């Protein structure tokens, strides 16, 4: 049997070694960048995406998917249980997060933001026209802010400040915030005759570590078991039970 040249053997060994080294890389699925589309988008469960861009349509991020940025213009964003998203943003639409979601920050203009049970945000939650709600066990490291809408914490924690202009703020039992601020109404925008006064409730075992600053008249109710910081611009009304009188 003829003997193969040594150069051929060395080449064959090199090709085999390279194929073995590159095999794991070929099997790994790279993060996907979805081009901007005129319609809805879906991030498949368990997959990883660098960016999702839509114009006229919503975005759904399925369970356990990981997305760097999700942005749309006319449509809502739904993030299912256990998913991760760095930045979620829309203009006309709400943003809803399921349970055990990990996110950076979220913002919308016309729509509400809902953060599910045991979810965590390392940044802020912001909207202009809409309310913001946090479920039990959820936590936000930054501010939670809206202009025309209320804020409700249901056993949740916000290290930053709760901010609004036209809306109520309610910390249900065991909730906490780093501070509260209600800004003055800009009366040059609309006619505010007969406006409803914001209602601020610090419920049982609620905690507000920082100052509460009110630059417009509000009704402030503080439970007997709550712990609060300094107050500017309002006089607290104490109450007992789960909720103050209407």
Topology (SSEs and partners):
Elements: H1 6-27, E1 32-37, E2 41-43, E3 48-54, E4 59-61, E5 66-71, E6 77-79, E7 84-89, E8 95-97, E9 102-107, E10 113-115, E11 120-121, E12 125-126, E13 132-134, E14 139-140, E15 144-145, E16 151-153, E17 157-164, E18 169-171, E19 176-182, E20 199-202, E21 207-208, E22 212-214, E23 219-223, E24 227-228, E25 231-232, E26 237-239
Parallel strand pairs: 1-3, 2-4, 3-5, 4-6, 5-7, 6-8, 7-9, 8-10, 9-11, 9-12, 10-13, 11-14, 12-15, 13-16, 14-17, 15-17, 16-18, 17-19, 18-20, 19-21, 19-22, 20-23, 21-24, 22-25, 23-26
End-to-end separation in angstroms reads 100 Å
What characteristic shape results from the CA principal axes? Answer: elongated
Helical fraction equals under 10%
The strand order across the widest sheet is 2-4-6-8-10-13-16-18-20-23-26
Number of strands: 26
Number of helices: 1
3D architecture notes:
The chain is mainly beta and 246 residues long. The protein folds into two domains: 36-102, no CATH class; 112-246, no CATH class. Helices cover 9% and strands 40% of the residues. It is built from one helix and 26 strands. The strands form two sheets. The chain has an eleven-stranded parallel sheet, with no helix packed on it. It has a six-stranded parallel beta barrel with strand order 9-11-14-17-15-12. The relative contact order is 0.07. The model is unreliable at 1-30 and 189-193 (pLDDT under 50).
């Amino acid at each position: 049997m003829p003997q193969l040249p040594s150069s051929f053997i060395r080449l064959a060994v090199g090709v085999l070694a390279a194929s073995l080294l590159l095999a794991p890389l070929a099997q790994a699925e790279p993060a996907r960048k979805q081009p901007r589309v005129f319609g809805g988008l879906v991030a498949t469960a368990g997959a990883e995406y660098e960016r999702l861009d839509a114009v006229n349509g919503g975005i759904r991020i399925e369970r356990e998917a990981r997305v760097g940025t999700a942005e749309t213009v006319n449509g809502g964003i739904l993030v299912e249980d256990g998913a991760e998203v760095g930045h979620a943003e829309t203009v006309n639409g709400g943003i809803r997060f399921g349970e055990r979601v990990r996110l950076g920050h979220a913002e919308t203009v016309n729509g509400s933001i809902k953060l599910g049970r045991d979810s965590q945000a390392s940044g802020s939650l912001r909207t202009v026209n809409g309310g913001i709600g946090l479920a039990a066990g959820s936590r936000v490291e930054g501010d939670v802010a809206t202009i025309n809408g209320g804020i409700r914490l249901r056993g949740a924690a916000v290290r930053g400040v709760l901010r609004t202009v036209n809306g109520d703020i309610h910390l249900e039992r065991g909730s906490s915030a780093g501070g509260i601020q209600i800004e003055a109404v800009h009366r040059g925008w609309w006619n505010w005759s007969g406006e409803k006064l914001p209602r601020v409730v610090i419920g049982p075992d609620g905690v507000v570590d920082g100052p509460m600053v009110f630059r417009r008249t509000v009704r402030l109710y503080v439970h007997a078991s709550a712990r609060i910081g300094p107050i500017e611009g309002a006089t607290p009304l104490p109450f007992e039970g789960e909720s103050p009188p209407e």
